[in-house]
User: Fold this.
Amino acid sequence: MSIFNSEKWAKDHFQHANLGDPHRTERFVNTAPNMAGSNGKSIARACRGHEAQLEGAYRLID
Assistant:
């Protein structure tokens, strides 16, 4: 079990990111923990079958 809290980490580091739209920043803060906790895995595996999270991650990248 890891003591690393990826949700807190993402919020602390990225909540003030200026991505041109507040929704993009929110999407980034919500996507980062999945990616941080799934190092080396595909985006689909990092989202663990959650379709909305997967769609959000792809929209962020787009």
